[in-house]
Amino acid sequence: MTTSQDDPAFLNGSLMRHVTVMSFTGSIGLMAMFAVDFIDMIFISMLGNEALAAAVGYASTVLFFTNSINIGLSIAAGSLVSRSLGAKAPVEAREYATSVAVFGVITGLIVPSIAMPLLPQILGLLGAQGATAELATTYLWIIMPTMSFMSVATVSMAILRAHGDARRSMSATLFGAIANAILDPILIFGLDLGLEGAAIASVIARLLMFFLAVMPVVRRYNGFAKPAPTTISRDFRAVSAIAGPAVMTNVATPVGAAIVMREMSKYGTEAIAGMAIVGRLTPIAFSVIFALSGAIGPIVGQNFGAGRMDRVREAFRAGAIFTALYVILAAIILLLVRQPVADLFNAEGLTRSIIYLFCGPLALTYFFNGVTFVANASFNNLGKPGYSAWINWGKNTLGTLPFVLVGSLWFGAEGVLIGQAAGGIIFAVIAVIMAVRLMNSDEISTKPTPFQSQRRLHLLINRGRW
Known about the structure:
With 466 residues, this protein is an all-alpha fold. The chain contains 19 helices and no strands. The protein has one domain (15-462). The model is unreliable at 1-5 and 445-466 (pLDDT under 50).
């Protein structure tokens, strides 16, 4: 699905169709990428060292943090670009895209420079010790220096989605995942590099994704303006007003994951290995829901930019219905395949119990994660990114720590995951109530012309209301 700047893709047609096409198209690339992570875990399990699987689990929690920053920046890019396109302001769209990409490069240089020397302490806070911590550190030292490339790639894919081009956005992740899958066995087993081989394969895949995401933005959409210090400094407030809360929103997720990981580490390597496997299964099973959060943002953004609040509300409803239908289907499939999945990893004892729990009733609770994604995407594109930050931080602190501790006390290792899900349900309900009230509020329910919408966007930014 592609469009021109004169005819934004999402202002006409069935919103359920837009949500479905964008989500499934986006999920193909995500699923391929997550499938490679899953295959990585299989290969690493074949090396016969349980500490390797645990090391990947700890490293993934750290990488989750860096990826969350990149996703936050991509949310700013998608939001600003889609609204500018909806308001028929292509020059502003290009300038915003460039500014966010530059901020991504800068962030991608600063964060690894600070974090890499502190990895032993960071991993120690997560509960990693001894050989497991050393293996995780080695893995991260190879991957983290590529954060700038991954940041620009993620931002570029958001820009493509803002133009309605989910196919090319998908292709970047799809071919990156294919390259990773090809290189994994060669480097891990063929060159006998083990865990380091898996990390090197990921680095090469990231560089390929960077190239495949940036090229169509430049060549097909002329989506970047020439970088200029005056433009970048001018856009700093607008970009940071969305990117700041969006980054904070996404950084909250690894904080919650770290809380869960630390509590789970009390139950030993078997529990951590089970968590690592579930961590690979989750994005494969629910890649469509992950893609939904990126798919619905441009739909809301373009219609908000054009002053079509009726279609904004309809898009929200379509996203919630789509989430419910997909989660039910995914939960049924997971229940049917949980035994062969556990056998694939030779999982026994606590590791197997955790896999069975996730592939059982716990999968249904992912509906609440999905509607939270839809609500947060709506907040980000309706000018209230701070709401997303409050919801995610609430969910991953107040909605995680006490529930995880109580769950652990009552049900052991399995209770850690049960408690995490229970807290998520409460904050999903809060998010939906806030989103509905926002969409029906007088502040944004007026229907300006595209020019008025763009003018209001700049006024709100300059008044500090974003």
